[in-house]
Design a protein that fits this description.
213 residues; seven-stranded antiparallel β-sheet; 31% strand; binds glutamic acid
């Protein structure tokens, strides 16, 4: 179970996400990644095996001025440490980061015929499940909520959709998730150390809770 960060506001999301991931490095991890979304619904997904410094090099080559995004440092439980298994995982317009274990991922995966799986993770199954429920009639919040009702296991998650760069959905069960409330911005972290220097106002989600940031 490793690190989650998120940012939505008016500052450079890549910069803030990388800063947060650096603060979570002490926990140990095997790969790292971020996705940011711009106002024209374009997502920039960057992932690297190894250290956050590898990810930083990638970000330097693909800088954006996006102001919303999520990031992750992974401690592999399902699938070897590799770029394809690093988070965020993508399904359709959905990007998702996850700490924890989806215990019934094999059963869920068998039902998700419409998605071509590209990783070995339990997490991609959750991304695909959310995407299968998300539509013009079902909001991202509702799709995440419906998906989580089908999940057996533990999770701290953050989810974004390229269709809607105005919100990040978070939820937790058995894995910590904290929302940092700033002035005209919101940060997300699995560990309060990632919020240091940004805000001292923190909301700790309880097990079974979700939030729209
Ligand atoms: N089970 C997920 C994976 O293996 C998440 C691991 C974590 O908590 O970092 O990708």
């Amino acid at each position: 179970m490793c690190g989650i960060v998120g940012y939505i506001g008016k500052r450079d999301a890549q910069d803030i996400l990388l800063g947060g991931l650096r603060r979570l490095e002490y926990r140990g991890y095997d790969s790292a990644g971020i996705v940011t979304i711009n106002r024209e619904h374009k997502a920039t997904l960057l992932r690297a095996k190894g250290k956050v410094s590898e990810l930083e090099a990638l970000v330097s080559a693909h800088e954006t001025s996006d102001m919303v995004g999520i990031g992750h440092t992974r401690w592999a439980t399902h699938g070897e440490p590799s770029e394809k298994n690093a988070h965020p995982h993508k399904a359709g317009d959905i990007y998702l980061v996850h700490n924890g274990i989806i215990e019934n991922y094999k059963e869920l995966r068998a039902q998700l015929k419409g998605h071509t799986f590209v990783s070995d993770t339990d997490t991609e199954v959750l991304a695909a499940l959310v995407n299968s429920l998300y539509s013009s009639k079902v909001s991202l919040k509702e799709a995440v909520s419906q998906a989580l009702r089908q999940v057996v296991g533990t999770y701290g998650i953050a989810v974004v959709s390229a269709k809607n760069p105005e919100e990040i959905i978070v939820a937790r069960k058995g894995s910590p998730l904290i929302i940092g409330v700033g002035s005209e911005e919101t940060l997300i972290a699995s560990d309060a150390s990632a919020l240091v220097g940004h805000t001292t106002q923190a909301i700790y989600l309880n097990d079974g809770e979700m939030a729209v940031c």
